Amino acid sequence: MTPSPSLFDLTGRVAMVTGGGGSLGSAICQGLARAGAAVVVVDMAGANGETVAAQIRATNGQADALAVDVSKEKDVTDLFAKFDKLHPALDILVNGISAPVERFQPEDVPLTSWQHMLNTNLTGYFLCLQEAGRRMIARGQGGSIINIGSIGGMNALGRGAMAYGVAKAGVGQLTREAALAWARHKIRVNALLPCQFTNSWWEARMADPNCKASNDQVLRGIPMGRLGRPEEMVGPVLFLASSAASMITGALLPVDGGNLALNAGGSVFW
User: Fold this and answer.
1) Which active-site residues does the annotation give?
2) Homologous superfamily, domain 7-253
3) How confident is the model at residue 160 (pLDDT cuts 50, 70, 90)?
4) Is-contact 29 54, C-beta < 8 A?
5) How does strand 63-67 pair with strand 38-43?
6) Residue 253 three-state SS
7) pLDDT of the residue at 269
8) Nearest CA to 43 among 10, 16, 13, 11?
């Protein structure tokens, strides 16, 4: 039996996307809006969030933008208070925030950099998840929380990205713990694990001949042989947000072109 397209319909649902002004976040916001959801675009850079919200409204979608530093508890409390004035309920949270990677060898990581990475990429996820969960529990109709993790949280990327990897590993365990605790409330908590996806930084790097060796190394680690495209995150998000994934919780789903399936000593060709 072919699933009905209505399984993926989000009409009448409200979604919040943190990091919604970035390359992945903006694609996710627009995809949720096309599926019928009202979207609240959250980004530290308010202008970026408003640009995405305006693009959604220009195509007859419903969107608002809110600026916040999700690493700060009071700011997150204020964010959800503002959200409550916009919408009576929250159905979907996409935790998509991500601080830029600061690269240090383990022996050289400054404590300030370590704390910043964990505060943004892990504590920020926790704070938003907690506020969303409280509202979903009180409402009693369940909901879907989707954390954007990384392949870097499943095994070591190296390249001085230790703090980033530790934070993203924590996102995976946060996902499992919350999924277990909130299953009885019909709140599904899952994570997506993307590989390297195209953005302005990667476009510049791929065009730089001085980076060819390291770029080739990255591409060798992705059996599909290319970076992901932001729009390729939309389908997995819609799936986990929708009724199509009604029996899925606690899952960490790679969106990685086969990266995590590839053993470090393996190769696509003999």
Assistant:
1) 164
2) NAD(P)-binding Rossmann-like Domain (3.40.50.720)
3) confident
4) no
5) parallel
6) strand
7) 67
8) 16
